[in-house]
C-alpha cells in the first residue's frame, strides 16, 4: 500500500494554446523506419542500380552520333540501340520494384503510427477525454496521419532516388564536359534557397489547415450524432448549424488554396529556368561552332543536353520533396504531441494479479482534489463546501466487506460519483489509498481490476452493432446460452426475443433504437455476463420513470446478490435495504449507518428522505 503516494498534475501539451511545442526532429522520424531497414536497404540498391543504368543512355547516344553513324558501323549501331532499349527496360523494372517495396514500408509505418496513437489514447486518463473534443482526436488519427501518406510511402524513396539520380547525372556531365557542367549548376544554390523558403511557408499554412480540419471534424461529430440531430431539430437550430459548418468549410477552402499556391510561382520559375538551360547550351555551342572554335563534338553536346534534361526531373522533384518534407513536419509534430502525452494512470512495473477476488473494498484516509489531477474541466469548481478549488473528498475511511452493500447519498456536488470513480481507477487518489482485498488498486494490473470491478452508470453506452455484439463486448467468447442467461437476469430477454431479428437486432447509434430502461437493462446484462465480484452502480436509475425504474431495480437486485455493491443513490427509495449507508457532505462522511439508524438520528439523511418523499408524487405524475 502507498498511503503517501500522490499524482502529479497532468496537462496535455497539444491542448495548451500558445504553448510552443518541441519540434519533430528528423532523427525521430527516421526511427519510425528502423524496423524496416532491410527492405529500405534493398530499395537503396535498386535506386542506385536504376540511376547508374539510367545515365548510361547518353553515353550510348554519344557513341551512336560520334562513331557508329559517321563510320557506318551497322553492327555497332544495332548493339548501341539495343543497349538504349535495355536500359529503359531495366530502369522501368527497377522502378516498379522499388515502388512496391517503398509503398509497403510506408503503409506499415502509417499502420505503426495509427496503432501507437490509438494505444496511447487508450492509456490516457479520463480527464483527457473530458476536455478533448472527439472530433479532434479523430482528426489526428485520420487527417494528420492520412496527410503523411505521401511522405512515408514515397517521399523517402523519392528523396533517395532523386538524390542518387542527381549525383550520378552530375558526375556523368562532368565526365563529358566540366565547363558546361559548371554553367548548368550556377543557379543551384538560388534554387535551394527558394525551395526552403517555400517549405517554411507551407509548413505554417499546413499547421493552420490541420487545426481547421480538426475543428470541422469535431463540428461534424457533435452535430451529426443522434444526440446532436435531436438537439438541433428540437431547438430549431438546424439552419444555424448548417451556417456554422459552411463557415468552417469556407475557412478550410481558403487554407487549402493558400497551401497549394504557396510558393507555386517561385517553384514554377525554377522549372522554367532549368527547362531553358538546354536552349542556352545549344545557343552557346552554336556560337562557338560558328566561330570555328568548337570545344565539344556534336555527339558530346547532344549527350550532355540529354543528361541535363535528365537532371531536370530529379532536381525539380528533389526540391519539391524538400518542400513536402517541411510541410509534413507540421503533421508529424501534431502526432508526436499525442505520443508524448504523459500517462499518469499506468500499471506498476510489477503489477499484482488478483486470481480469485473476494471483493472487500476499503477507503483508507482517502483525499481527492481535481486540482491534483489532469482534469482542468473540474479544477477550481465548487464542491459541497461552496469554496472554489476545495478538495472534493477529504479523509474518507470506509470498509465494504465482501458481499455486502454500501449506499452513498448526499447533495449534488458532495463527491458521490467521484468516490465511485476511485475504485476502478478512473482517477487516482491524491492522498490515502483504495484497496481491493487488501491490495492498493494502484498496484493491480488493469486486467485484474477490470475483471474485479464492474461499473453501471447513468450514461449507458452501446455500440452501433447487434445486441449480441454489445453483450459480448464484456465477454467475447460468451455462448448464446450465456447471453440468454445474462439477459434473463437483467429482465430484458423477453423484449429481445420479441424483436424480428432477436439478438441480431442492431441497437443503432448509441442505442437509440431502445428506450432508456431497455438500454439500462442491456448494460446490466453486459455487466452480469462479465460477472465481477465488485459492482459500482452510479445513479443507474436516476433518469428513468418510476415504472421503468422498478423493472431496472429488480434487475439490479438480481445482479447485486452475493456481490460487493457500492450504489451512488439519487432516489433514496432504492437504497433502504443497503447494509450500510454513508451520507457525504462537502466531501466528508457526515453520517453512516443503516436506514433505520440514520432515520433515528434525524440528521442529514432523515432530511434527504423527507425531501425525497415530498418529490415522489411529482415524479410519479
Automatic annotation (TrEMBL):
Disordered: region residues: 1-22, 374-393
Keywords in alphabetical order: ATP-binding, Cell inner membrane, Cell membrane, Membrane, Nucleotide-binding, Transmembrane, Transmembrane helix, Transport
Listed Pfam families: ABC_membrane (PF00664), ABC_tran (PF00005)
GO molecular function term, any single one: ABC-type oligopeptide transporter activity
ABC transporter domain sequence ranges: 361-611
Membrane topology: Multi-pass membrane protein
Presence of the UniProt keyword Transmembrane helix in the record: yes
Record-level GO cellular component terms: plasma membrane
Family to which this protein belongs: Belongs to the ABC transporter superfamily. Siderophore-Fe(3+) uptake transporter (SIUT) (TC 3.A.1.21) family.
Protein's name in the database: ATP-binding cassette subfamily B protein
Organism: Streptomyces candidus
Amino acid at each position: 500500500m502507498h498511503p503517501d503516494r500522490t499524482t502529479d498534475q497532468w496537462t496535455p501539451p497539444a491542448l495548451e494554446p500558445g504553448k510552443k511545442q518541441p519540434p519533430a526532429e528528423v532523427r525521430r522520424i527516421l526511427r519510425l523506419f528502423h524496423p524496416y531497414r532491410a527492405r529500405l536497404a534493398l530499395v537503396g540498391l535498386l535506386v542506385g542500380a536504376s540511376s547508374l543504368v539510367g545515365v548510361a543512355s547518353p553515353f550510348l547516344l554519344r557513341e551512336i552520333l560520334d562513331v557508329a553513324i559517321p563510320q557506318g558501323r551497322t553492327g555497332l549501331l544495332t548493339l548501341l540501340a539495343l543497349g538504349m532499349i535495355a536500359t529503359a527496360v531495366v530502369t522501368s523494372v527497377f522502378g516498379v520494384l522499388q515502388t512496391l517495396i517503398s509503398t509497403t514500408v510506408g503503409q506499415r509505418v502509417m499502420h505503426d503510427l495509427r496503432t501507437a496513437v490509438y494505444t496511447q489514447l487508450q492509456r490516457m486518463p479520463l480527464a483527457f477525454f473530458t476536455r478533448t473534443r472527439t472530433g479532434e482526436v479523430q482528426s489526428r488519427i485520420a487527417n494528420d496521419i492520412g496527410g503523411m501518406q505521401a511522405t512515408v510511402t514515397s517521399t523517402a524513396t523519392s528523396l533517395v532516388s532523386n538524390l542518387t539520380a542527381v549525383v550520378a547525372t552530375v558526375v556523368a556531365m562532368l565526365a563529358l564536359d566540366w565547363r558546361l557542367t559548371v554553367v548548368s549548376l550556377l543557379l543551384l544554390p538560388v534554387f535551394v534557397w527558394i525551395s526552403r523558403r517555400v517549405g517554411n511557408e507551407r509548413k505554417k499554412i499546413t499547421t493552420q489547415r490541420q487545426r481547421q480540419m480538426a475543428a470541422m471534424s469535431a463540428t461534424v461529430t457533435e452535430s451529426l450524432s443522434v444526440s446532436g440531430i435531436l438537439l438541433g431539430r428540437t431547438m430549431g437550430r438546424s439552419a444555424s448549424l448548417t451556417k456554422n459548418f459552411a463557415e468552417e468549410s469556407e475557412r478550410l477552402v481558403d487554407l487549402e488554396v493558400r497551401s497549394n499556391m504557396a510558393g507555386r510561382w517561385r517553384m514554377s520559375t525554377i522549372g522554367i529556368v532549368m527547362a531553358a538551360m538546354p536552349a542556352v547550351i545549344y545557343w552557346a555551342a552554336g556560337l562557338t561552332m560558328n566561330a570555328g572554335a568548337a570545344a565539344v563534338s556534336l555527339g558530346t553536346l547532344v549527350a550532355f543536353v540529354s543528361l541535363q534534361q535528365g537532371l531536370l526531373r530529379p532536381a525539380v522533384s528533389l526540391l519539391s520533396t524538400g518542400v513536402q518534407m517541411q510541410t509534413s513536419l507540421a503533421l508529424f509534430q501534431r502526432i508526436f504531441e499525442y505520443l508524448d502525452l504523459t500517462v499518469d494512470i499506468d500499471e506498476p512495473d510489477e503489477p499484482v494479479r488478483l486470481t480469485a477476488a473476494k471483493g472487500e473494498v476499503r477507503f483508507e484516509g482517502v483525499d481527492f482534489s481535481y486540482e491534483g489531477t489532469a482534469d482542468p474541466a473540474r479544477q477550481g469548481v465548487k464542491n459541497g463546501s461552496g469554496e472554489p478549488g476545495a478538495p472534493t473528498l477529504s479523509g474518507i475511511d470506509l470498509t465494504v466487506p465482501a458481499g455486502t452493500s454500501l449506499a452513498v447519498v448526499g447533495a449534488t456536488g458532495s463527491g458521490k460519483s467521484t468516490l465511485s470513480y476511485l475504485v476502478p481507477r478512473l482517477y487516482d487518489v491524491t492522498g490515502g489509498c483504495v484497496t481491493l482485498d487488501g491490495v492498493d488498486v494502484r498496484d493491480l494490473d488493469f486486467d485484474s481490476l477490470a475483471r474485479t470491478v464492474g461499473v453501471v452508470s447513468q450514461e449507458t453506452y452501446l455500440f452501433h452493432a447487434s445486441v449480441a455484439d454489445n453483450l459480448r463486448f464484456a465477454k467475447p467468447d460468451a455462448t448464446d446460452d450465456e447471453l440468454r442467461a445474462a439477459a434473463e437476469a437483467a429482465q430484458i430477454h423477453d423484449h429481445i426475443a420479441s424483436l424480428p431479428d432477436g439478438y441480431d437486432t442492431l441497437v443503432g447509434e448509441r442505442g437509440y433504437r431502445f428506450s432508456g430502461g431497455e438500454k439500462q437493462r442491456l448494460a446490466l446484462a453486459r455487466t452480469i455476463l462479465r460477472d465481477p465480484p465488485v459492482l459500482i452502480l452510479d445513479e443507474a436509475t436516476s433518469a428513468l420513470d418510476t415504472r421503468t425504474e422498478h423493472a431496472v431495480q429488480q434487475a439490479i437486485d438480481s445482479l447485486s446478490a452475493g456481490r460487493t455493491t457500492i450504489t451512488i443513490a439519487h432516489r433514496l427509495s432504492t437504497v433502504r435495504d443497503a447494509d450500510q449507508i454513508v451520507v457525504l457532505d462537502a466531501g466528508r462522511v457526515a453520517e453512516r449507518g443503516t436506514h433505520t439508524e440514520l432515520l433515528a438520528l434525524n440528521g442529514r439523511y432523515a432530511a434527504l428522505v423527507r425531501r425525497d418523499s415530498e418529490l415522489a408524487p411529482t415524479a410519479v405524475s
